[in-house]
């Protein structure tokens, strides 16, 4: 007897459907699996045989052949336990093969027949819907994740017996046996709490210039670098940036949730990621953990920060080679990983927030405290290359906190994240209207061609920018960064035109890097 069950898997961030073909025939008893698969996938055969026996299904002494199609895709890290078990039962006549039409089956089996969660449910279900399938049977712990996709029935099962009973039940009785899982995505967003009450800009005394810079960065989704001595509050500011960012749109949420689904980082209670991610990592992180990849490719920290914040504390402590891995993602907003088994592309549109001391001891240019030699400082700051600096829109200095600021005991004297976020959201609405009908979401995403269209300057403003370009010896990339930041500053001010005062502030955020890096070169 022959049966075919449709299942799915992910390769990188994309998904594909595959056919699990099962043939049970007379002959020398054997259990063979073919279809260009790795050893870990072949292990599914042993689990399935034990799970079937413990679930009450006796496998007769027969020749069983399993084929995973298409054969031109190597199956590594793929979980096909439940589809194989269902296919064997269908080939033995214990499950009606007609019930498998327009159905996708996903899940890992325990030895007792329990159906366990698998990774990548969201992209697989999305692919199944696109291919016209009507039903997906999957682990009940993955059901809410799969139900986010509208227009396809999601049935969560906890055991092999439940899956068998559901498939054998008459069509009109199935929903009474196991109710389809439904998720109200709109309500999910309405109920989400975007602001973390434990993190608030009101907790930060002083540092008005840094707060202003982070507001601009949040409004236009610009990369930002905070430079200052230890204890200036750089990390405190960075950790509070997500509290003033605009909420994720549904489209962005699906993008982020797909990445976390593939990485296996969606909890049972989470149907979607509704908050912008905030990822922070140590300078000892491996290159694979940072950018992704591995023997079974999976997203790295950079991709997990997609549509959110990637915070690198003590940036010069990172080896230069690791920081330079950010160059392509910062420019292309994606990561391309080439392996002999294929090429994988992961989304990587994140906001980079870097914090660093200006020298190894942290107190340069205060020579009363700093004893670092120019060579020490140059070597330390040299870990951050020019191309990385060029890709950072805003560079701001966080000075040492004054005692007068620390003495302010009334927290209400400081502006809260909620108040700052209102201005950010207003600037975001202006950008939505400006870029309506395009793929652009934030000012930081404008290409040079877009800048020509949306950042038109008057004669006075153009003359000022040209003078700054020549005197500061800026690159073409830095020139465009200034215009993007100036556009965001104008949006916060509610100005349709970019004025000289907006340009002056934007240029000011390019002066700080010159104070440290260019001065050290001289």
Description:
With 522 residues, this protein is an alpha/beta fold. The chain is 40% helix and 17% strand. It has 23 helices and 18 strands. A five-stranded parallel sheet has the order 11-14-17-10-18. It has a four-stranded mixed sheet with strand order 1-2-4-3. β12 and β13 form a beta hairpin. The longest helix has 22 residues, at 500-521. The relative contact order is 0.10.
What's this, in brief?
The protein is of the alpha/beta class. Helix content is 40%, strand content 17%.
Query: Low-confidence stretches at least 5 residues in length (pLDDT < 50)?
Result: none
Assign the structural class, choosing from mainly alpha, mainly beta, alpha/beta, alpha+beta, or little secondary structure. Answer: alpha/beta
Shape: elongated
**Roughly how many Å apart are the termini?**
80 Å
Entry keywords:
elongated; four-stranded mixed β-sheet; five-stranded parallel β-sheet
Topology record:
Blueprint: E1 2-11, E2 14-25, E3 30-34, H1 39-42, H2 44-54, E4 63-69, H3 81-91, E5 103-105, E6 108-109, E7 115-116, H4 121-130, E8 135-139, H5 143-147, E9 153-157, H6 160-168, H7 174-177, H8 185-191, H9 208-220, E10 224-227, H10 234-240, H11 250-262, E11 278-281, H12 287-291, E12 292-293, E13 298-299, H13 301-304, E14 309-313, H14 320-324, H15 327-332, E15 334-339, E16 342-347, E17 351-356, H16 374-381, H17 386-390, E18 394-397, H18 403-406, H19 417-434, H20 448-454, H21 459-471, H22 476-492, H23 500-521
Parallel strand pairs: 3-4, 5-8, 8-9, 10-17, 10-18, 11-14, 14-17
Antiparallel strand pairs: 1-2, 2-4, 6-7, 12-13, 15-16
């Amino acid at each position: 007897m022959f049966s075919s069950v449709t299942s799915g898997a992910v390769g990188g961030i994309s998904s594909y459907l595959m056919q699990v073909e099962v043939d049970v025939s007379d002959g020398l008893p054997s259990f063979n699996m073919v279809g260009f698969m790795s050893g870990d996938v072949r292990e599914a055969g042993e689990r399935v045989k034990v799970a079937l026996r413990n679930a009450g299904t006796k496998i007769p002494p027969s020749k069983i052949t399993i084929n995973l199609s298409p054969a031109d895709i190597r199956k590594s890290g793929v979980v096909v336990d439940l589809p194989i078990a269902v296919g064997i039962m269908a080939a033995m006549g214990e499950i009606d093969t007609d019930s498998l039409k327009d159905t996708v089956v996903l899940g890992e089996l325990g030895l007792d027949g329990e159906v366990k969660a698998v990774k990548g449910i969201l992209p697989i279900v999305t692919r199944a819907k696109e291919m016209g399938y009507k039903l997906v049977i999957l682990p009940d712990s993955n059901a809410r994740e799969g139900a986010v996709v509208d227009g396809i029935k999601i049935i969560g099962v906890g055991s092999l017996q439940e899956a068998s009973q559901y498939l054998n039940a008459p069509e009109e009785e199935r929903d009474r046996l196991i109710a389809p899982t439904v998720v109200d995505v709109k309500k999910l967003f309405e109920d989400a709490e975007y602001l973390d009450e434990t993190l608030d800009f009101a907790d930060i005394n002083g540092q008005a210039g840094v707060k202003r810079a982070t507001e601009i960065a949040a409004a236009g989704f610009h990369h930002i670098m905070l430079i200052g001595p230890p204890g200036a509050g750089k990390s405190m500011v960075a950790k509070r940036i997500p509290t003033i960012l605009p909420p994720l749109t549904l489209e962005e949420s699906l993008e982020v949730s797909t990445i976390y689904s593939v990485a296996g980082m969606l909890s049972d209670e989470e149907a979607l990621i509704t908050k912008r991610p905030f990822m922070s990592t140590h300078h000892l992180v491996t290159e694979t953990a940072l950018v992704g990849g591995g023997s079974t490719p999976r997203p790295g920290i950079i991709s997990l920060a997609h549509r959110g914040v990637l915070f690198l504390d003590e940036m010069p402590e990172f080896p230069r080679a690791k920081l330079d891995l950010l160059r392509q993602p910062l420019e292309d907003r994606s990561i391309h990983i080439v392996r002999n088994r294929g090429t994988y592309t992961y989304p990587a549109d994140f906001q980079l927030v870097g914090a660093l001391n200006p020298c190894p001891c942290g107190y340069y240019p205060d020579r009363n405290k700093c004893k670092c030699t120019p060579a020490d400082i140059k070597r330390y700051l040299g870990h951050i290359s020019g191309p990385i600096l060029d890709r950072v829109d805003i560079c701001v200095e966080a000075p040492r906190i004054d005692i007068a600021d620390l003495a302010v005991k009334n927290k209400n004297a400081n502006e809260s994240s909620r108040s700052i976020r209102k201005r950010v959201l207003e600037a975001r609405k202006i950008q939505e209207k400006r870029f309506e009908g395009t793929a652009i979401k934030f000012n930081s995403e404008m290409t040079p061609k877009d800048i020509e269209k949306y950042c038109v300057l008057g004669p006075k403003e153009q003359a000022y920018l040209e003078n700054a370009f020549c005197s500061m010896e800026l690159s073409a990339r830095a020139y465009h960064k200034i215009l993007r930041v100036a556009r965001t500053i104008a949006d916060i001010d509610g100005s349709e035109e970019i004025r000289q005062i907006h340009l002056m502030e934007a240029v000011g955020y390019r002066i700080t890097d010159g104070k440290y890096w260019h001065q050290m070169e001289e």
